[in-house]
Amino acid sequence: MNPKIYQTFQQSELDAVLMYHALAQNAKSDAEKALLLRLGAIEGKHAAVLRGITENGELQPTDAMAKPIALLERFAGRRVTYFLVSLGEKAAYYLYQPLAKQHPELQTNAKEETEHGDTLQWLAKAIK
User: Fold this and answer.
1) DSSP 71-88
2) Quick check: 98 and 109 in contact, CB under 8 A?
3) pLDDT at residue 3, as a whole number
4) How many CB atoms lie within 10 A of CB 42?
5) Largest alpha-carbon pair distance within the chain?
6) DSSP code of residue 28
7) At the N or C end, where does the chain have fewer CB atoms within 10 A?
């Protein structure tokens, strides 16, 4: 498999950290904020796992996800935003599968992405 794909995943995980921090800024409760920050921290852990594979410590988080998600949240609201992000998290499970065949340690990343999707769907449903 092309080694660049691992770097692309690593960059996406780094960017997801900032995305969750942006979502946490608009949380309506301390519990919601803490949950979003925890999801962001797990994304950082995913990036660290990928860094061990790519050996690329030069990548830095960008706002490539945070800016459009913040804009979506502003116009569509938290409920819709959480639901749409949850779909991306759940899709990541399937995107990780070919990579996990060569690097089984990525199976944990994949499983946690599904859990993130479930958590975000739960949050979306909890919003009145």
Assistant:
1) HHHHHHHHHHHHHHHHHH
2) no
3) 83
4) 19
5) 45
6) S
7) C
Write down the pLDDT at residue 85.
98
Helix, strand or coil for residue 111? helix
pLDDT tens, residue by residue, 12-32:
999 999 999 999 999 999 999
Identity of the residue numbered 69: I
DSSP secondary-structure letter at 29?
S
Which of 79, 89, 87, 91 shows the shortest CA–CA distance to 123? 79
Q: How many other CB atoms sit within 10 Å of the CB of residue 3?
A: 11
DSSP-based three-state secondary structure for 26:
coil
Q: 47-70 as b/e, with b when 16 or more CB fall inside 10 Å? A: bebbbebbeeeebebeeebbeebb
Question: What is the DSSP track for 36-75?
Answer: HHHHHHHHHHHHHHHHHHH--------STTHHHHHHHHHH
- DSSP annotation of 1: -
One-letter amino acid identity for 104?
P
In tens, the pLDDT along 74-125 reads: 999 999 999 999 999 999 999 999 999 999 999 999 999 999 999 999 999 9
